[in-house]
């Protein structure tokens, strides 16, 4: 019998905590992950017909632990029979907990995130390992999301696992210093899902949704962390516009042309509540500030009613904390909306040579168009279109350029 959506959702939610429990007790990240996958496959085959057990997480841990110890015994038997028993004894005795009790510790998922975002790993490796170990995505799914061959992604994940082999499982001693890497990894995953950097699709909703789910988990485990709350708010407020961002043929629809009735009001309400609480706890950090900007956009009933003065003030504070080229580019748009396109173009001039990709020329084309320079705007749009690897963005930019011809 095929697995039902309800069972698949239950398995996905439990998988990282089951993996965390095995890694915490036995080590052997690679072998533990394989054992968890076998347990998940067994559950997907049995539960739809036999029913979900009273303690599904405990059931998964029991089955996975049995598979893991069998695999480790088989491996060790080929090496050193006399030392097998000592080498394979878990660090503490484990039995599946009775129904109603927590199986692993609640922060096992967070510990997995810290492990996947180890500072020795590159950002692409952190993303891949997070999606594999914590998100539960297959290597093929991750490869498709990032438009690379499955073999390439498999090598990336394998190298990442090798680098974290032997790393103590659990929250690092100075875990607060690792948290920004965790949040940044989740933010990068969300951004790739919300606006794909390449390919035929504008968005990859499954990837964005996974980032929201994992960030919600971090916020639940660290409810007093303002940056985690701010990141979750930012994702919700941004993803709320997803259905209105593309037309029936997948074409890009810019923010000021979207049908705001199609925005997700429940997500906006939750995001606004989260960012309001985060901002009330003291000096805001980058994620609450970004979320506050998104909230101003989402709460405006129309493009004309958007409070650009407030947005510019928020960007002034954000750029003071994070003076990166993307933040400064977005601030230049706010400057143009408050002080006119010429002022925004002056801000862009200072970014030349510091921002890679098509976005600088795309914004330049928009501001030149508003400033009444159609030929220069057309050239900027065409330059931006030539640089992007996203077909929907390319078509949109070329359409803007074509509209200005003659």
From TrEMBL:
Residues 113-163 form the RNA polymerase sigma factor 70 region 4 type domain. Residues 10-76 form the RNA polymerase sigma-70 region domain. Residues 75-85 have a biased composition (Basic and acidic residues). Residues 75-104 are annotated as: Disordered. Pfam families: DUF6596, Sigma70_r2, Sigma70_r4_2. InterPro entries: DUF6596, RNA_pol_sigma-70_dom, RNA_pol_sigma70_r2, RNA_pol_sigma70_r4_t2, RNA_pol_sigma_r2, RNA_pol_sigma_r3/r4-like, WH-like_DNA-bd_sf. It comes from the Bacteria. Keywords: Sigma factor, Transcription, Transcription regulation. Residues 178-278 form the DUF6596 domain. Belongs to the sigma-70 factor family. ECF subfamily. PANTHER family: BLL6612 PROTEIN, BLL6612 PROTEIN-RELATED. This is Sigma-70 family RNA polymerase sigma factor. It comes from Streptomyces violaceus. The lineage of its organism: Bacteria, Bacillati, Actinomycetota, Actinomycetes, Kitasatosporales.
């Amino acid at each position: 019998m095929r697995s039902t959506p309800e069972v698949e959702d239950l398995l996905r939610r439990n998988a990282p905590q089951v993996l965390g429990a095995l890694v915490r007790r036995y080590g052997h990240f690679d072998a533990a992950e394989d054992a968890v996958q076998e347990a998940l496959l067994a559950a997907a085959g049995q539960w739809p017909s036999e029913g979900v057990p009273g303690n599904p997480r405990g059931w998964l841990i029991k089955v996975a632990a049995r598979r893991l110890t069998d695999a480790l015994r088989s491996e060790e038997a080929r090496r050193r029979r006399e030392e097998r028993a000592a080498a394979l004894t878990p660090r503490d005795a484990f039995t599946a907990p009775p129904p109603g009790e927590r199986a692993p510790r609640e922060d096992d998922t967070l510990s997995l995130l810290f492990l996947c975002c180890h500072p020795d790993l590159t950002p692409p490796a952190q993303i891949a390992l997070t999606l594999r170990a914590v998100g539960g995505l297959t290597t093929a799914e991750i490869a498709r999301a990032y438009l690379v061959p499955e073999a390439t992604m498999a090598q990336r994940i394998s190298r990442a696992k090798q680098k974290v082999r032997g790393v103590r499982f659990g929250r690092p001693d100075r875990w607060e210093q690792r948290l920004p890497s965790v949040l940044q990894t989740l933010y990068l995953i969300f951004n790739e899902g919300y606006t794909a950097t390449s390919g035929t699709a504008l968005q990859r909703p499954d990837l964005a949704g996974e980032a929201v789910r994992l960030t919600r988990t971090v916020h639940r485990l660290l409810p007093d962390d303002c940056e985690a709350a701010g990141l979750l708010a930012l994702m919700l407020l941004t993803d709320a516009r997803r259905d209105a961002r593309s037309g029936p043929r997948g074409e890009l629809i810019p923010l000021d042309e979207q049908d705001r009735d199609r925005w997700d009001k429940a997500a906006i309400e939750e995001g606004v509540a989260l960012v309001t609480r985060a901002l009330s706890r003291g000096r805001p950090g980058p994620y609450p500030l970004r979320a506050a900007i998104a909230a101003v956009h989402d709460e405006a009933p129309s493009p004309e009613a958007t409070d650009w003065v407030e947005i510019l003030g928020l960007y002034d504070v954000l750029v003071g904390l994070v003076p990166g080229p993307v933040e400064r580019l977005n601030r230049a748009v706010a400057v143009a909306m408050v002080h006119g396109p010429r002022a925004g173009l002056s801000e862009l001039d200072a970014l030349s040579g510091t921002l890679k990709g098509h976005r600088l020329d795309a914004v330049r084309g928009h501001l030149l168009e508003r400033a009444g320079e159609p030929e220069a705007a057309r050239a900027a749009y065409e330059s931006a279109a030539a640089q992007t690897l996203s077909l929907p963005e390319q078509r949109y930019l070329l359409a803007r350029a074509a509209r200005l011809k003659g």
